Amino acid sequence: MRLDRLAARWWLTRVWIPIAAFGACAIALGSLELDRASLEPFFDRAQGVFPLRRSWFFDGVLHQGGRATVLLAALGLLLTGVWRYRHAATRAAAGRCLYLATCVAASTGLCNLWKDLARQTTPWNTVQFGGSEPWFEPTTGAFFRTLGSPGAHSVGGFAWVALYFVGASLGARKRWLWLAPGLALGTLFALAQHVRGAHPPSHELWSIALAWGIAAAGASLARRLRVLEWREDAAATDVASATRADAALPWLIGSAALFAGMLFFAFDMLLEHLAAETSEWSTRFEIAEVTVTGLGVGAAAFLLTARIVEARERAAARLRDEREERFRALGRMAASVAHEVRNPLHTLRLIVDEQRRQLPALSSHALQPELDACIERIDHAVDLIHGFARGGRDEHESSDLAQALREAASAAERMLPAHASLRTDVAAAPALVRGTVASLRIVLDNLLRNAIEAAPAGSAVEVQLARQHGEWNVVIRNQRADGAPLAPGESGTSTKPEGLGLGLSISRRLAARLGGAIDLEFEGRRVTCTLRLPALDAEERE
Question: In this structure, what CATH number is given to the domain that contains residue 453?
Fold first, then answer.
């Protein structure tokens, strides 16, 4: 019952009252001399014609071109609707196309029938404006002549107010915006016919009343036939439908702005035509024209740029969210893998130690250091993953950064390619920082490996440890070869399109957790990577 009351109130306030108001205004205006007098400024008594009747813009563009455009648009909608109605997946869209085409055809058809019943006389054919027929007097004649009649051309523009119900069927919450194209186009056509001497203003009021009535009646019939589904209550629209309808707003606003711009140009031409009588208004309009044009172009450029920036930010945020989700999933999986790897790794160590006791020659084998280094590296990685899973351990331990750097450099030298070399400048004195040796080794190994991989043939990777402003700085400098990956991970992402940038990402997170940071500087092909960690004194270590 409540829905019935809402629907009845909607039809009363949104349909019947507007139609009655437009009709009453049309009848009242048709009874006044103002309806006829409004055509006088556009009639040339000396020549006995309406000079703008054959204007390239008002006749060629708005009248003939507008009529052809409306006809082609309605025909295109009709053919599209018939073609797409055969498939169930596109039947809803086909129903909207058929509804729009029907509204345009019904509006213009009923308008022409009404004009025939009212025996409408075009103003330029009347005696007052150079013709031979008398001006229509509403006090005489049949019922339709007393009411007046709509304008066929303007009703073809106003017929597109039916887009309101298309927006309602899509779930638009701001469906009043869907009225804008029809109102703007109808007003443009009405102005063109008025200045050409084809219609008095009262005819245009009947045009919009007729178009809105047919759109509402057609929507009601289409809903009963299940061709067009729509609701009077916009607040009941679901979010998904509203999002789908909002996607069409740029087209609506763009078309309405196009018609509004043409209307602005039409007023400019009118003021130029009436320059003798409206010299003061012409100057004011030119000022307004400059202001609106400048502000309009500036606002359009601003909104377009803001939209592009917003789209880029959304894409970047979506990429970051996806990356973070992949990191979280990878972290959960890695923690499980590390737990399973630790026990076999411990067994492997026991086996190697047992073989060394049974076969003393293994201890002096040339590959033995490499084997120990590989096992140690795996152990560091497993310990790091467990540290991430437990959290907080690095905050309560301290290590010698100098010793960790010497060990990382020694391991890197064993893996150096033949074309590059490593130069280190690390003092023998301890460099105490917070964090476990495993955490420090992971950071240093990643940074050194990235620098070495990017170094060109014959170059050297320089490594230096120095204390500055209460921090220990590990500075790694290298040259970058042509086509080499960005070293070490410029912009904080992987150089591979499908990569996660794990090396630098993990290193940055570890350094931040230890109170430090990793800085990158690029000067031509020279890359400088600085690892900064807060220094600890011996007392703090204790």
Answer: 3.30.565.10
